[in-house]
Write a structure and sequence with these properties.
It is a single chain. The protein has about 550 residues and is mainly α. About 70% of the residues lie in helices and about 0% in strands. It contains 26 helices and no strands. α2 runs antiparallel to α25, α21 packs antiparallel against α22 and α22 runs antiparallel to α26. The protein is globular.
Length: about 550
């Protein structure tokens, strides 16, 4: 399990999951048409669930355990990978002393290590792609609401824990298995859907934790909100007391960053003090499993009895004419294949037609794809080997450097973005769309400038500064997802959401291959080529963001 699963929560799924949050305000089917029931976002059951406050605490506890557990495993996992690769290349096992440490920072070892990490990241997109395709093609079945979001989340977490257990088996060298078999961990993540499903369910549960109906989570209000806050004390707390989707998203990501920072700090200090690397790795695995068990407590409130979208009147009439009930299962595999193929062709035509007619959609999709591609350079699988090799640090020391950037992210999501969003909308009267574009552009420039500093920094101090600046722009993907919702009607927003979700997964896979090679080439010449390329990609995203700001608003009358 790579830390990419963490970043995808922001985006990868990161971006996709964030978009799905905003889509919860309206029910639409898989091809963007309004429907009375939503596949993933329908109402919670009435039942007798735990109190809203208890459920909110449980949701954020699961988020913290999952992110902390995954972060705990990063440093020991990378260090163990390096030891194994070094031992295989130089025929020296662990415990050979200083000479092994020096050899393990050689170009040959680091290039092989980066190849392993890049392949791990690339093959990790398999579960995400299959899940996205399955969600699009099987719009008539709402698995999350049929079995409960908590149960689906728990199942996905168990799948991730199982995949990591497989990596541990390989790395223990109990059996002489090739290291390239770590790429097969993605097959075990198919159990439950992997990080994509985890991110989606955590986002939905975080949104629904305080509301009986997820669609009741409102959007940011206008100036009237400031007048309704009452006392000075209430006005100061208004950005955090708000029940809008943006406020919930900021709280979600604050918890996410806190879990990641705590896990990485604990892991780095543990390994740095010479303790066995298996301790933090085992604790991380245990945290993920405990998170899965706690997720089962959320089950009673997330089951919906009618979890199947009702057929349209035309479909029902056609079925009656054929004398077949709509619920009759299709036994002929060839017929089912033809149905799926027809649906793919229909979705493809509608998507292409929509994007061709709507330049705003094309610009937002480009922003999302380029943002994801550039943002991937910030993941720990690439950042830690780069810092370790270029600045001659072991992984336990290198693991401490990103915590400064994570602190800036925590402040950003907990304080910066809530205050900025609230101030622009209530104090200056900006619309949510204008606020989103302004903050997205600032975030994109921070990402690009930080990546450039990180790639060219001659010292550790400047590299940390670049990482902090880059981390301060991590709200870009959330803001782009929000712009998708505020720029289009619900049906069109659903179409754009699926496009950005699939492209985010593709960007994630491409980044695994691209950055692993660029880091290897750049380190031969003592600079971060991967971060220079990422900066160029992100500056291009900035230009597209400016074009999107000055372009005409989309015509809501253009139906696809």
């Amino acid at each position: 399990m790579s830390s990419d699963s963490e970043r995808r929560l922001e985006t990868n799924l990161g971006p996709g999951a964030a978009a799905s949050l905003h889509l919860s305000s309206t029910d639409t089917d898989a091809i963007g048409e309004p429907n009375e029931q939503s596949r993933l976002l329908s109402d919670d059951a009435e039942g007798h669930p735990p109190s809203r406050k208890v459920k909110a605490i449980l949701v954020y506890l699961v988020i913290f355990l999952y992110t902390c557990g995954t972060a705990l495993q990063i440093v020991p996992r990378l260090q163990r990978y390096e030891e194994i690769v070094c031992g295989e290349l130089y025929d020296s096992g662990p415990g050979k002393g200083v000479s092994q440490s020096l050899d393990c920072k050689g170009n040959a070892v680091q290039e092989e290590l980066l190849l392993l990490l890049g392949g791990e990241k690339f093959f990790g997109i398999v579960p995400a792609i299959l899940v996205v395709i399955a969600v699009i093609l099987h719009a008539d079945v709402d698995v999350a609401n049929r079995y409960g979001r908590g149960k689906v989340l728990a199942f996905a977490l168990f799948g991730i824990a199982l995949s990591q257990a497989w990596v541990i088996v390989i790395c223990t060298r109990i059996f002489p298995l090739p290291m390239y078999l770590i790429w097969t961990q993605c097959l075990l993540q198919l159990i439950g859907g992997g990080p994509y499903i985890v991110g989606s369910m955590l986002h939905l549960l975080a949104l629904g934790a305080k509301h009986k109906r997820i669609r009741d989570v409102g959007e940011s209000s206008s100036k009237s909100t400031a007048k309704e806050t009452g006392s000075t004390y209430s006005r100061w707390l208004a950005p955090w007391n708000s029940d809008t989707k943006s406020a919930v998203l900021f709280k979600y990501h604050s918890t996410f960053i806190a879990g990641t920072a705590v896990g990485q700090l604990a892991s780095s200090f543990s390994v740095r003090k010479g303790r066995n690397i298996w301790y933090p790795w085992a604790f991380g695995e245990m945290f993920v499993i405990v998170g899965a068990l706690i997720a089962l407590l959320l089950l009673p409130e997330t089951i919906v009895e009618n979890s199947t979208i009702q057929p349209s009147s035309s479909e029902a009439q056609a079925s009656d004419n054929d004398g077949v009930s709509p619920a009759t299962p299709k036994i002929d595999a060839r017929v089912r294949y033809q149905e799926v193929l027809a649906k793919v062709k229909s979705l493809w035509k509608k998507t292409i037609s929509f994007v061709k007619k709507n330049h705003q959609a094309m610009l937002l999709i480009s922003m999302s794809f380029l943002g994801n591609l550039g943002y991937e350079a910030l993941t720990m699988e690439f950042l830690l080997p780069y810092i370790s090799k270029r600045y001659h640090q072991d992984f336990s020391s290198a693991g401490l450097f990103p915590t400064f950037g994570q602190m800036s992210q925590f402040i950003l999501f907990l304080i910066g973005l809530p205050i900025a969003t609230y101030t622009f909308q209530t104090g200056f009267g900006f619309s949510s769309r204008a606020t989103g574009y302004g903050l997205a552009l600032a975030s994109c420039f921070a990402l690009a400038f930080g990546a450039l500093c990180l790639g060219l920094a001659p010292s550790v101090f400047l590299a940390i500064t670049g990482h902090i600046v880059m981390s301060s722009g991590t709200g870009f993907m959330i803001l782009v997802s929000s712009l998708v919702i505020t720029s289009f009607s619900p049906g069109k927003a659903t179409i754009v959401y699926y496009i950005t979700s699939i492209l985010a997964v593709i960007a994630n896979g491409l980044a695994g291959l691209m950055y692993s090679k660029l880091i290897s080439v750049g380190l031969r010449h003592e600079y971060g080529l991967s971060y220079v390329v990422a900066a160029c990609v992100l500056f291009l995203a900035c230009l597209i963001t400016i074009l999107a700001m000055v372009s005409n608003t989309p015509n809501d009358d253009q139906e696809i």
